[in-house]
Amino acid sequence: MTQFSLPSLPYAYEALEPVISADIMRIHHQKHHQAYVTNLNAALEKAAHAEKAGDLETLISLQPAIRFNGGGHINHALFWENLAPKDQGGGALPSGALLQAIEKTFGSLDAFIEKFNNKTGAIQGSGWGWLCLSKEGQPSLTIQTCANQDPLFATTAHVPLLGIDVWEHAYYLQYKNARVEYLKNIWKVINWRTVAQRYEQAVSAEKLTAK
Ligand code: MN3
Questions:
Q1: pLDDT tens-digit profile of 85-138?
Q2: How far, in Å, from the CA of 126 to the mean position of ligand 1?
């Protein structure tokens, strides 16, 4: 049976300071993300037993836990990789095909960020904001929000390119209730190189499917 494990961060816990404190990063990674992984593995183990026993009721009752914790694992794994400290390229502006697509879709990078922050800041309760590639018709960029830990693919036909976690655990220790401030600052540690790689992969995958 597959066991999922906590990926290590590609930078130190304090590396994103002062934008995101070491305290937040440590707890977010070691406690929150670890809990999603632990609970996902526990649910999958129960599901494997239930499947063997032909126990459909138990299998069905485990689906919400698999979706929530599995989504949490997928989302956080993407999130850590689309952040970076300044000396690893964090905050360095996008260029090339990705920038062109952003400008074509949103007018400018600044206009995109404003729209993203408005939509993501308005999420009621816990959730995520995503820049993604829509797989409907011609591949195009869109901003989507998801509640709780719903992974993007489970609700919409989109490929995630850049995700920002707006659960309170992602900012509250440092920013208190000021989600808007957190969203304003986080762009200083966005790893646009990762976003561009995801964009290029998603576009070429779409082109292959279209043939
Ligand atoms: Mn989180």
A1: 999 999 999 999 999 999 999 999 999 999 999 999 999 999 999 999 998 778
A2: 9
130 three-class SS: strand
104 CA distance to ligand 1 middle (Å): 31
CA 112–ligand 1 middle distance (angstroms): 23
Q: Kindly state the tokens that stand for 73.
A: 């694992």
pLDDT digits (tens, 9 = 90+) for 138-182: 889 999 999 999 998 877 789 999 999 999 999 999 999 999 999
Give me the architecture of the 96-210 domain, per CATH.
Answer: 3-Layer(bab) Sandwich (3.55)
Indicate the pTM of the whole model.
0.95
The CATH classification number of 20-83 equals 1.10.287.990
Ligand 1 centre distance from Cα of residue 115 (Å): 22
Listed residue (100, 165, 156) closest to 127, CA to CA:
165
Distance 88 CA to ligand 1 centre (A): 22
